Fold this sequence. Notes:
GO terms for molecular function: DNA binding; DNA-binding transcription factor activity. This protein has helices at 6-26, 31-38, 42-54, 71-101, 143-150, 154-161, 176-189, 231-251, and strands spanning 58-60, 67-69, 104-111, 114-121, 136-138, 192-195, 202-210, 216-225. By secondary structure, the chain is an alpha+beta fold. It has two domains: 3-69, Orthogonal Bundle (Arc Repressor Mutant, subunit A); 78-251, GAF domain (Beta-Lactamase, 2-Layer Sandwich). Helix 1 crosses helix 3 (42-54) and helix 2 crosses helix 3. The termini are far apart.
Amino acid sequence: MRNSEGPSQVQSVDRAISVLEILAREGEAGITEISVELGVHKSTVSRLVSVLEARGLVEQLGERGKYAIGFGMVRLAGAATGRMDLAKLGRHSCQALAESLGETVNIAVADDGVAINISQARGTAAISTQNWTGQRTPLHATSSGKVLLANMDEAERRKLLRRKLEQYTPRTTVEPAELTLELDRVLEEGYAACFEELELGLHAVAVPILGPGGEVIAAMSASGPSYRLSKQRVRQIVRPMTQAAEELSSQLGYFKS
């Protein structure tokens, strides 16, 4: 895009958003009504509405009728609401589990090839003051990331594994074939563990959180120092973590059949 086209493109986006705001406020409106409110020619509004309609964000009410918000907006709103609900409900779940285990508990979601922590609670035995909330962490070198990566669409997973994977410690798995085998085990066993793969001296274990349709939408992890969160203890806390994740999943609308 040439620089001279920038302002025009931004203005079009601003006008398209204004169209959506008008329809959200009025319920329905015609091309003429929208053009009058925006102060632009009807042909400009018609082009904007056509693009929004093609994306499912607005819909026409009857042949050559007025326009209203489309189901595409419902889908986008649902995705945003779901993430906000997850963060809100997750805080309570994290705190309860952190108090029970004594370790730091996080909830992470996948976003553009990384894991983003959206909620955290520190347990009574936690010694680190690091706040992971909002931090972007690698999928292949964290327990949460492995849960998210394992449950991705196969094509998306292959695409991510074709990237050069960063070696954070000598224990980080970076070979795609080896990592694929580990992800298969995650699916089979229902949890993922990382032992000094992101940081030396740090162990972690994670379990999936399910959405209303049974899809994995996030991962709940517990992390702590290797001397306390041993491999044996990791196996011991998988069950209470799974129970906590299942309770949160049910609050988000998932019900086991």
